[in-house]
Design a protein that fits this description.
By secondary structure, the chain is an alpha+beta fold. It is built from 11 helices and 11 strands. It has helices at residues 4-15, 34-42, 56-64, 84-92, 125-144, 148-155, 229-242, 250-263, 302-312, 383-388, 391-403, and strands at 97-98, 106-112, 157-168, 179-186, 196-201, 207-219, 278-285, 322-329, 338-347, 353-361, 364-373. The protein starts with a helix and ends in a 19-residue tail after the last helix.
Amino acid sequence: MESAAEQMLQRVLGRYPDCPSLPPLPKCSARWSESDFEVFVASMGSIVPPGSGVEADDAKNTAKEEHALFECAPRRKPASESTDIEQLTSDSRDVNVKNKEKADACLVTSSSVFMVDRAPEGLKVEAVLTKFDQCRAAALQSISGMSTQSLVEQEGVGILLSDIYYAVESTRLPAVTEAVTVESEIDLPKLPMLPSLQSLVDSQGNTVCSAVFGQLFVDMKTTMLSQNSDAYNRVKRPCDNVFGRGVPNCNTVAVRQQLTAKWSQQRPKQGRMFRPSRYCLGKYVVAPSDCDTYNTLYHPKVASVCEHACLSAGETFCCAPTNAFFCKFISTLPPGSRLNAHIFVDATENNGSRALFVFERDSRCALCALVVYDGPLPATLYEEEIQAVTPKNAEALLAWAGQGVAKSPLACDLSALKSPAH
């Protein structure tokens, strides 16, 4: 005779006839309710329901899993029994989605190129990233019904931006007033991650530039990474459904595998570490107009902050178009923050000026970025350059600049430079 738990599992499986094979049930499943089994089945075994008495070993093993997570897919039941969340999810399907049920499914938002978006020879990165931010926020709200503000007010969580990768991909830049679209890919692979890929697409269907945003759910009270699965799932479920990956089946498994590969993709390798040929020191003071509602530097401002730091050091290579950059946000930068900008420049002959910025506040690194000015298109950063933009390497560079010797191994080659401390 089947146990009560087995009976609940079979009832749930009856609602998901296309669900692939599941992993073995954890020990704590003996204490699950039917809704707990629903979450486990709909996630294809990726989610062990919270609050179900997960034992330490089970939780540890679950944390080690590297596959993406799923939220509960729509149940098969009459429309009259639909919950508010399910109705919201159904309504959100009316948004303009491209490539549904594929790994590059995205929300398409119409826009135009304005004077603020263009420079004489390139794009103004700050304006483009602001456009992306506006479209990303609108996409999140139109799909899930949750804004960043409502997440804070209702769930006590915010969305922290940890890093940005930006690159210009086309030699043809859209003219002022030209119609363009912003394509926004949003994924919630596992708590607390919320990566996003956005592209500016011209009137001919060509990708002009793109940016990948590393985003994380953060607890606003503790400022630690959030473990609020309810808040995460309130965003994840409608996103999965709108993009066509909400039902557990073989196609969804394949799409999830492709997404996992996309978010973990490495950049091409150069074959050597980042090797600057000169060093200079700039300054920057964060202004109130530079900051957002979290009272810290607004992320689209990063490219402009790097330009100002260069100019303060007497360098003008930053006047060329910004074709690519990668930055890591290490600590908050409220108004009045006084920054020393340690700038390491690799002025290549055919690959543009490639500059590593380490912004120092109170003897610690607060922001780190590598920017490519000019050079061939489509632009790219090398994996070795990405590896140079880490807190550990930044602190080692600060030690080199202040004391003449790095306290830990460097992720770049400073053999052509002389420390200013000497």
